[in-house]
Specification:
Length: 388
């Protein structure tokens, strides 16, 4: 069985098809997907499913260009997070909570995302999806009300995929490239608490809830294009550095995104007064610019201020450092060994307290010494998680 796709990676790459195993574990419920839609959907589904298996909580992923923009498990939303995301909802199902947190980890990157949830999509989640700029949802099922609501999104063109939650693919996977076929065993190594049994730093103890956050950060790397580094807090990704040739650039990207996530919740940011006609994406863009205040040119600053009712007071460098330092339990995970201490130095500026990496570098001791200087806990997992 096959599903005809809109096109391949680019609109000129036609025809394109998705070939399904028999019996088919995937159903196209609505819309006509593209090749990249399918890549994102299958990557996001695997991530959400594995998070649910590892933690027992409803889980979600927000994918863009074959890497997660965000991923999370269901945990309560606090006032600062809700305000930073321009949300007021509190009566939310676990699936809706998980997706809101996943999307809220990097709302700029999640714009026009592919969403995946581990649980059945209910009315609570459907209401969230209807108001967001989201291109596709993949899930193991939908309530009738939720399905009816989602089929109305995007004038009936919203992409909906249903996947068999019990489907297990063959252990051997293959990939065709330039007329050649590659084969390998699937990366099925489970990411559990036992993986973090080898602390190499002086500090070694990690609270249970923080360890769960480290598990979330590490599982996400299995489905992120390498090289990759993730930063997580309170059971959700808040920064991903994906597909970089240099590991320190991965770390810088992930930590810069994490800093922005923290600062979105600062009192000065939440106190911005937007002009009433602005929509949520416009507000998000203004916040993004506001947090880069000192880096903006005069025209950029004028454009930002045009969307505000009054001129804001910038957050000072000292206030930024103090605010970021108030978050406890920040985790960083690397999909391979950390080769130099510059990664640790950058992580410390984002108040990372727990690190997981494969280990095995010639400079392992230098990196461990750096983690000890900052009072971090660092684990060597012995497990590389490259994805290409």
């Amino acid at each position: 069985m096959k599903i005809d796709l809109k096109y391949g990676c680019n609109p000129h790459q036609k025809p394109a098809h998705l070939l399904l195993p028999d019996p088919a574990p995937l159903t196209l419920v609505n819309g006509v997907p593209s090749y990249i839609n399918i890549l994102d959907a299958l990557g996001a589904w695997q991530l959400a499913r594995e998070l649910k298996t590892a933690t027992g909580s409803a889980a979600a992923a927000s994918f863009k260009h074959t890497s997660p923009a965000g991923a999370a498990i269901a945990r309560p939303l606090n006032d600062a997070f809700l305000a930073s995301q321009f949300l007021t909802d509190r009566d939310l199902s676990p699936a809706a909570l998980a997706y809101i947190r996943a999307r809220g980890g990097d709302r700029m990157s999640s714009f026009g995302d592919v969403a995946a949830v581990s649980d059945i999509v209910d009315e609570s989640l459907a209401l969230v999806l209807k108001r967001e700029v989201c291109d596709l949802i993949i899930a193991p099922g939908f309530t009738p009300v939720a399905l009816r609501m989602l089929k109305e999104k995007k004038k009936g063109a919203f992409l909906i995929l249903q996947i068999d939650g019990d489907y297990q693919p063959p252990k051997m996977e293959s990939r065709d490239l330039f007329g050649f076929s590659l084969q390998q065993f699937r990366n099925e190594t489970p990411i559990t608490a036992e993986l973090f049994a080898n602390p190499v730093t002086t500090r070694q103890n990690v609270p249970t809830d923080v360890l769960e956050t480290l598990i979330v950060a590490t599982i996400a790397l299995k489905y992120t294009q390498s090289n990759s580094v993730s930063v997580a807090y309170d059971g959700q990704l808040i920064g991903v550095g994906a597909g970089q040739q240099s590991r320190v650039h991965c770390t810088r990207l992930a930590c810069d995104k994490a800093d922005k996530w923290f600062l979105q919740q600062h009192a000065k940011t939440r106190g911005l007064t937007f002009k009433p006609e602005l929509k949520r994406p416009d507000k998000a863009n203004i916040v993004d610019q506001y947090l880069l205040w000192n880096q903006l040119s005069e025209p950029e600053r004028a454009q930002m201020l045009s969307g505000l009712s009054q001129k804001p007071e910038p957050i000072t460098p000292e206030e930024k450092t103090e605010w970021i330092g108030s978050f406890v339990g920040v985790c960083l995970s690397s999909d391979a060994f950390i080769p130099f201490r510059d990664n640790i130095d950058r992580a410390n500026r984002s108040h990372v307290q727990v690190i997981a990496q494969a280990g095995g570098s010639l400079r392992d001791q230098d990196v461990t010494d750096a983690a000890d200087e900052y009072g971090m806990v660092m684990f060597h997992t012995g497990l590389r998680l490259f994805l290409h």
